[in-house]
Design a protein that fits this description.
It is a single chain. This protein is of the alpha+beta class. The chain folds into two domains: about 15-75, Winged helix-like DNA-binding domain superfamily/Winged helix DNA-binding domain (Arc Repressor Mutant, subunit A, Orthogonal Bundle), CATH 1.10.10.10; about 80-255, 3-Layer(aba) Sandwich (Chorismate lyase), CATH 3.40.1410.10. Helices cover about 25% and strands about 30% of the residues. It has seven helices and eleven strands. The chain has helices spanning about 15-30, 40-45, 50-60, 110-115, 160-175, 190-195, 250-255, and strands spanning about 65-70, 70-75, 80-85, 100-110, 125-135, 135-145, 180-190, 205-215, 220-230, 230-235, 245. A hairpin with a 2-residue loop joins strand 8 and strand 9 (about 220-230). The radius of gyration is 21 Å and the shape is elongated. The two termini are about 25 Å apart.
Length: about 260
């Protein structure tokens, strides 16, 4: 990638730089290749480092670049398609191969979650933390909030903590007759705990999927799942299997 001076264009300078960089990623770099540092890139394109950072952040948001601890900024592989709405994945824990339980605890739910659960202020609920891994890479972290009233048969003695306790909570949920779950997706920023589990930097762009699990018209559990925005392409449908597959090249370029 040689020296390229940007010409005056009607669009913002950072967006034009983003377009030039995107073309360079397709022609001059391979997946996984590390980009030159910011100082060198800014000099090549004749822009301020602040403008360069804006363009790089936009490309990261689009899934074209990844920032990795101790490595730098690399060219991202094609996004993987992650199905988040299938009959076999209605209750959390229905597909144990896709998700790995990490821990169980009890805590007061955040205010927004407590409103969905209709729990009292400061009332403690079960929390289950899980992580989703594909091709050896963490692609999502999830925190599930479950009121004690949803799992009344859960023993306080058997599997008192850790992944085994998390599985016990999920098994009890699956005994309930679930109505259709309700899901909402929004763009967010990775919190410190999620960023660590997903090997991202705090504040990195993520997709947040909030799911409300309803039984007999009442909320039985709420899940907040954080997906890597640079890696995942969320898919919704009624297929029978939870599939994770590479997106075609033209899809990645259009993202």
């Amino acid at each position: 990638m040689g020296t390229t001076q940007l010409q005056t264009v009607p669009e913002s300078k950072y967006w034009h730089l983003r377009t030039v960089l995107a073309e360079a990623l397709d022609s001059d770099f391979a997946v996984g290749e590390v980009l030159p540092n910011e100082r060198e890139l800014a000099a090549r394109f004749g822009v301020a480092r602040a403008t360069l950072r804006q363009a790089l952040e936009q490309l990261e948001l689009e899934g074209r670049l990844q920032r990795r601890r101790g490595v730098g900024t690399t060219v991202a592989p094609p996004r993987v398609g992650v199905a988040v709405s299938t009959p076999r994945d209605e209750w959390p824990g229905a597909d144990e191969e896709a998700w790995q339980p990490l821990d169980h605890g009890t805590a007061a739910a955040p205010a927004a979650v407590a409103r969905l659960l209709e729990t009292g202020e400061g009332e403690e609920v079960h929390t289950v933390r899980r992580i989703r891994i594909t091709n050896g890479q963490s692609v999502a972290a999830e925190l599930i909030y479950v009121p004690s009233s949803s799992v009344p048969e859960l023993s306080a003695i058997e599997a008192p903590s850790g992944p085994a306790r998390a599985r016990a909570v999920l098994r009890e949920l699956q005994r309930l007759a679930l109505d259709a779950p309700e899901r909402a997706v929004e763009l967010g920023s990775a919190r410190a705990e999620d960023a660590k589990e997903l090997d991202r930097l705090p504040g990195a762009p993520v997709l947040v999927v909030t799911t409300r699990y309803v039984v007999a018209g009442r909320t039985a559990a709420v899940s907040v799942a954080t997906y890597r925005a640079d890696t995942c392409r969320l898919t919704f449908g009624d297929s029978g299997d939870l599939e994770i597959s590479e997106a075609p090249e033209e899809t990645r370029q259009a993202s």
